[in-house]
């Protein structure tokens, strides 16, 4: 089923080494070390406030970690600004939907492809033929990505995100992140607020995305999604990695169960 | 209907407006009225250039008159002291203003929101003080007098009509070039930064670079307007470029609406005409000005035409478009959706 997951890569696609994020005394992340291999679907799970989104922010450069290192294809990501990280081939969606509300659906997706294009001010003014070619190619790429969502977004190219249903806005965010062809796609709660049917659609979509050659890193709260989708699960709690393994291993892990069932009252009292 | 006729009819509002603008000097014989039109032209360029920052990329600049002033002084100095012909001095003034914009933007654009706004205000005040006190170069508060009339290919523009056509050309060039900039990669990036800077940055949009480019462009257009102003009035002094002028531009955007190319034009025209129309009220006319703005903020906060893109194209001459997707977001059976997405061929 999967095309690239079976090949063993020399080095992990993404290596997170000893990452700590300190918010003035509060350690949102504490010495987290993990990795993501090419072609995998990896889930980050954990209770609210465990540091999952913070780890995403550290990877994408929106919130650089206090210490540690993050390597992508062997290259250091620390010190890069978010747009430079995006250019390296890491794209993301947001927990709270962040779409461009006064831009059409198509333009939203087109922005996702901005860094693959080269038209500058002079190009825009003089409009040599290559500008038109680039624009058309970009548009076709957007249409190809939007067609992954069946008839959800294609009929709504000229609408604004505020007119879309909640699930469609989430889909649009994924499309916008996907259009630049990232090696690694970070999805922050892609099924939040979706009904079971829509959730199933997203599960299928994430599998499809992996088959198209993207590696996927997901933050998710719905356990059925995590268990059916993931190749590997990383569990965070209070900023620390408490477990890592296949869905079956995680389901049997006592510490994970304790963290989820509230058995760690002693940890909070520390 | 032949395609040419159809597109002509569809664009007819533009054609009518353009014809009216071209014929205006023949219909308006009063030199004072024509001068008002020329001034409206200057303010249209200035409002459009500020719109690039405030309306499109969402940087609030409240000291835009600084670049207007730089353009005016640069053009006056270039033609009078350096002997540069007008046709080169005008773009030169734009470039000098643009360079000033770059020097201001480069170090300060990392500042967020209100701090950046304060920098633009400070820059405007500093520029005013420099123009006021650098006696040997700017002649201080006395200003520069006897700025030569524009000479274009040996033809001296001296009449009101000549100035009118020059500013009309400049306004059309500004509108045309901005339209091209906005509708494409550049404009999309600007609007995405205004809508959500973090998301834009995360999608790979180099926000700092786009901000600097927008700043330089806005300064360039303002510099062109300043150059025209200097050669039109033939006398410039620092007072014309004080923050008061910046606030008038802001009021024009607030009134007309920003984030499209029509709002600033309407705002500039109306807010320049208002004080002229109420001239009989003498000093109370500024009161009218203020009341109009206050009412506007209460009734329609986004401005007359703010908040969306307008097209004057008459759509009813277009060929009807075929609708391929009509089913919309209906609850599709699970198998069907899965099939559709999974059968999608790889790129």
Number of helices of chain A: 11
Helix-strand pattern of chain A: EEEHEEHEHHHHEHEHEEHHH
Q: Give the % helix of chain A.
A: 25-40%
Using DSSP, what is the number of strands of chain B? 2
Give structural notes.
The complex is a heterodimer of chains A (about 270) and B (about 350). With about 270 residues, chain A is α/β, with parallel strands linked by helices. In chain A, about 40% of the residues lie in helices and about 20% in strands. Chain A is built from eleven helices and ten strands. Chain A has helices at about 50-60, 80-90, 105-110, 120-125, 130-145, 165-180, 195-210, 225-230, 245-250, 255-260, 265-270; strands at about 15-25, 25-35, 40-45, 65-70, 75, 90, 185-190, 215-220, 230-235, 240-245. In chain A, the strands form two sheets. Chain A has a six-stranded mixed beta sheet, with helices on both faces. Chain A has a four-stranded antiparallel beta sheet with strand order 2-1-4-5, with helices on one face. In chain A, strand 1 and strand 2 form a beta hairpin. Chain A is globular. The termini of chain A are far apart. Chain B has helices at about 5-10, 10-25, 30-55, 65-80, 85-110, 115-135, 135-140, 160-180, 185-195, 195-200, 205-235, 245-255, 265-275, 285-300, 335-340, and strands at about 150, 155. With about 350 residues, chain B is mainly α. Chain B is about 70% helix and about 0% strand. In chain B, helix 3 runs antiparallel to helix 11, helix 3 (about 30-55) packs across helix 12 (about 245-255) and helix 13 runs antiparallel to helix 14. A two-stranded antiparallel ribbon of chain B has the order 1-2. The longest helix of chain B has 27 residues, at about 30-55. Chain B contains 15 helices and two strands. Classes of the chains: A alpha/beta (about 270), B mainly alpha (about 350). Chains A and B meet through helix 2, helix 3, helix 4, helix 5 and helix 6 of A and helix 8, helix 9, helix 10, helix 11 and helix 15 of B.
């Amino acid at each position: 089923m999967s095309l690239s997951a079976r090949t063993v890569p020399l080095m992990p696609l993404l290596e997170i080494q000893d990452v700590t994020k300190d918010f003035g005394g509060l350690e949102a992340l504490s010495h987290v070390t993990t990795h993501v291999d090419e072609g995998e679907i990896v889930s980050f799970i954990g209770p609210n406030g465990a540091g999952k989104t913070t780890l995403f922010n550290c990877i994408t450069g929106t919130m650089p970690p206090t210490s540690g290192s993050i390597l992508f294809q062997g290259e250091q990501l620390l010190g890069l600004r978010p747009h430079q990280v995006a250019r390296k081939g890491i794209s993301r969606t947001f927990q709270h939907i962040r779409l461009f509300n006064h831009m059409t659906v198509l333009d939203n997706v087109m922005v996702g492809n901005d860094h693959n294009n080269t038209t500058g001010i002079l190009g825009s003014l003089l409009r040599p033929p290559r500008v038109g070619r680039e624009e058309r190619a970009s548009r076709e790429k957007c249409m190809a990505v939007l067609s992954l969502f069946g008839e959800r977004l294609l009929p709504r190219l000229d609408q604004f995100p505020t007119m879309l249903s909640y699930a469609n806005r989430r889909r649009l965010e994924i499309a916008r992140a996907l259009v630049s062809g990232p090696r690694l796609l970070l999805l922050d709660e892609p099924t939040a607020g979706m009904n079971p049917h829509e959730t199933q659609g997203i599960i299928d979509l994430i599998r499809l995305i992996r088959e198209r050659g993207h590696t996927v890193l997901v933050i998710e709260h719905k356990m059925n999604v995590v268990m059916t989708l993931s190749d590997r699960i990383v569990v965070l709690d209070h900023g620390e990695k408490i477990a890592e393994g296949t869905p079956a291993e995680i389901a049997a892990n006592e510490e994970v169960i304790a963290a989820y069932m509230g058995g760690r009252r002693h940890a909070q009292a520390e | 209907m032949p395609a040419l006729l159809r597109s002509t009819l569809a664009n007819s509002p533009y054609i009518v407006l353009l014809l009216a603008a071209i014929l205006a000097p023949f219909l308006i014989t009063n030199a004072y009225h024509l001068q008002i039109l020329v001034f409206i032209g200057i303010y249209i360029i200035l409002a459009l250039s500020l719109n690039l920052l405030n309306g499109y990329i969402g940087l609030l600049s409240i000291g835009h008159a600084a670049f207007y002033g730089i353009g005016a002084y640069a053009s006056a100095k270039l033609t009078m002291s350096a002997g540069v012909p007008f046709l080169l001095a005008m773009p030169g003034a734009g470039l000098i203003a643009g360079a000033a914009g770059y020097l201001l933007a480069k170090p300060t654009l990392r500042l967020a929101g209100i701090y950046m706004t304060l920098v633009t205000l400070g820059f405007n005040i500093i520029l005013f003080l420099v123009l006021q006190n650098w006696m040997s170069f700017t002649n201080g508060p006395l200003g520069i007098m006897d700025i030569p009339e524009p000479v274009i290919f040996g033809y001296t523009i001296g009449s009101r009509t000549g100035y009118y056509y020059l500013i009309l050309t400049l306004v059309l060039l500004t509108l045309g070039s901005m339209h091209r900039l906005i509708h494409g990669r550049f404009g999309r990036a600007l609007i995405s930064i205004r809508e959500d800077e973090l998301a834009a940055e995360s999608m790979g949009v180099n926000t700092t670079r786009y901000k600097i480019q927008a700043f330089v462009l806005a300064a360039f257009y303002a510099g062109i307007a300043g150059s025209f102003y200097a050669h039109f009035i033939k006398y410039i002094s620092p007072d014309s470029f004080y923050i008061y002028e910046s606030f008038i531009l802001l009021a024009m955007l607030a009134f007309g609406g920003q984030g499209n190319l029509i709002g600033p034009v309407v705002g500039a025209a109306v807010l320049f005409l208002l004080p002229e129309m109420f001239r009989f009220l003498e000093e109370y006319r500024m009161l009218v000005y203020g009341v109009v703005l206050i009412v506007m903020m209460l009734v329609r906060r986004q401005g007359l035409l703010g908040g969306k893109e307008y097209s004057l194209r008459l759509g009813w001459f277009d060929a009807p478009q075929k609708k391929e997707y009509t089913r919309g977001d209906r609850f599709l059976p699970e198998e069907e959706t899965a099939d559709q997405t999974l059968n999608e061929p790889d790129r």
